[in-house]
Amino acid sequence: MFTWFAKKTQNESDKHQYFDEILLHEHSGSQSQYCQGLRYKTDFTIEDIEVGYMNKYYKIHAFVGGDASKPVAFMFHGYAASEAQYFKMYKKLLKAFYVISIDLPGMGQSSKENISLNNRDEAINFLSGTIINAMKQFPGKKTLIGHSFGGYIAALVAQRCPDQIERIYFLSPAGATQYNKQQLQEIQDFSDEVWHKKKLAKILQSWWQSQETLNDFYRRWWSPFLIKQFLRFRINLKGQELHLYQKYLFNYLELPVGSEKSIFMMFFLSKVRLSTDYSIEQIIRQSKELQSIPIMFYYGDTDWMDQIGPQRLAQEFGNIKLRIIKNTDHQLVFFNPDDTVSQIIEDLIV
Q: Is 192 or 109 the better-scoring residue by pLDDT?
């Protein structure tokens, strides 16, 4: 059982600590760059939500915006990211939802202190437990929207409080397909690959076993260059937008590690990118409640994430739909945010 306390706080004296200010106010016009013309403190705020879990208190950093009378949507970002990854989607989303987009507990600008995670169960319980305690202070059922690692977190949250969930949008989620033990061994075996793929797999598996987070990686003298190139070519950002997001990310990566190592406890590195023996597919199959609410899986038309589990679910359960978003890969929120949000809103009537 989760112990919980919750109150919403926004300490203006601490506002200098918000790296969001880099995106919001660094230069004339940066507010529209960040939130597509939304007005800070009028259309949205940047807040810390204080929650208690297992007799400890944590702050969950959040973008909060829109009309509170609209359906509540909690948004969960991907790994090594923050709520800022959704900045291209907020304006259109606020037309349909009251949005609470969080930095996952122990990540981004959420509290990093008093976090000690030693295994998968501890990681799952901490992340889902703190999020559920934050959700309890917002009335009504919630829509969950999660990208990549955040999609997997959305499934864990929904599993633990299905009566509080209105619908779920999985945006190219990690860990969607269930594999048995033999299959997991096979997709982690790179011995039949060509030599350069074997070499790359060995490097990546060594890194995975070391549990080195992106925050750790950033401290190497040459890593900022690689991150800049990734943002330029794989996140589809240009000009001032690229400059602001890059500066925001570099400030974020200077923060200490909190719960970031949880990904190494939850997933295996494999031929299908990230796999797990406790998948979204299994979670849904084990929950009668989740089989009765609308669930949407979105993937890009050039997506590399494993879609086998969602395809099976969509064929077997009438409440589950799989959508393909054109002109994007795994990074739906950057490469085609407009069509992604339009599909989210269209699927509200499903």
A: 109
Amino acid symbol at 120: R
- Report CA dihedral (263, 265, 269, 275) to the nearest 10 degrees: -90
* Cβ neighbours of residue 179 closer than 8 Å, sequence gap 6 or more: 187, 275, 277, 279
Residue 6: what pLDDT?
38
pLDDT at 58 over 50: yes
Element (H, E) at 60: strand 56-65
Residue 135, H or E segment? helix 120-135
Q: Is 335 exposed, middle or buried (0-12, 13-18, 19+ CB in 10 A)?
A: buried
Supply angle C-alpha 333, 334, 339, rounded to 5. 60
Give the chain's count of helices (H) and strands (E). 15, 11
106-153 pLDDT, tens per residue? 999 999 998 999 999 999 999 999 999 999 999 999 999 999 999 999
Instruction: Specify the pLDDT at position 28.
Output: 39
Determine the Cα–Cα distance for residues 350 and 84; give it in Å rounded to an integer: 28
Rounded to 5°, angle at Cα 23 from 248 and 91: 120
The CB density around residue 5, as the number of other CB atoms within 10 Å, is 13
Task: Report yes or no: 269 and 89 within 8 Å, Cβ to Cβ.
Answer: no
Radius of gyration of the chain measured on its C-alpha atoms: 19
Residues with Cβ within 8 Å of 143's Cβ and at least 6 positions away in sequence, in order, are: 71, 72, 73, 74, 97, 165, 166, 167, 168, 169
> What's the CA gap between 30 and 336, in Å, rounded?
21
pLDDT bracket for residue 11 (50, 70, 90): very low
Mean pLDDT of 100-106: 97
- Give the residue-averaged pLDDT of 269-290: 89
Nearest 5°: CA angle at 291, between 301 and 296?
20
Reading the block at residue 1, the tokens are 């059982």
Q: Cβ(89)–Cβ(337) under 8 Å?
A: yes
The 10 Å Cβ neighbour count of residue 140 is 9
CA distance 87 to 296: 21
- Whole-model pTM? 0.90
Q: Calculate the average pLDDT of the chain.
A: 87
